[in-house]
């Protein structure tokens, strides 16, 4: 799931876009996000299995799973005897802040704050765990943290995000189909953000009257 400010024309197939603040706020809860993440990773699980994974009570997990089902994020899977497993709804969620919908923008902020904190904590926990696990010494770590700043128009930024999504898209089906996972594959966590730095004004462009002029050596003229 993700937040997005692009137009509907940029929404890939298979994604469900919503600006409904009530539905977005239904996910602005740490346990509900943890439950969705777990179901996405294992395919389906009962409230008992969810409780064992999250450390919460079965009753608490059952309550939040039912709430997630009410808003269309999870659904009952095929019963296994007396067990009632749940599964993540296949459609990927795209939350779009819409200023014309009261409460939409702030709902996205509330969701994003919880999601970002959880992902940051998960990454730091991984780094600490890897440093302490001697059995991982000598293994090639498929891990990266990138911090880049670049000037781009909204359309250019959209194309970058779409290119990254296109690279990951073919691998997403492996979450629900264990037989498609090649030997040595591990469950990977991908988290990225892209946003304008509001501390800097928009570039005026080369056609602006106050834009830097270039001399014959193709360098800005000295004032």
3D structure, described in words:
This protein is mainly α. The chain is built from 6 helices and 6 strands. A 3-stranded parallel beta sheet has the order 1-6-2, with no helix packed on it. It has a 3-stranded antiparallel beta sheet with strand order 3-5-4. Helix 3 packs across helix 4.
- Following the backbone from N to C, one meets helices and strands in this order, namely EEHHEHHEEEHH
User: Nearest-angstrom radius of gyration?
Assistant: 22 Å
Shape: globular
Number of helices: 6
**SSE-based structural type:** mainly alpha
The amount of beta strand, in percent, is 5-15%
Give the low-confidence spans.
6-13, 219-223
Short description:
By secondary structure, the protein is mainly alpha-helical. Helices cover 37% and strands 8% of the residues.
What labels describe this entry?
223 residues, mainly alpha, three-stranded parallel sheet, three-stranded antiparallel sheet, 6 helices, 37% helix, globular, disordered C terminus
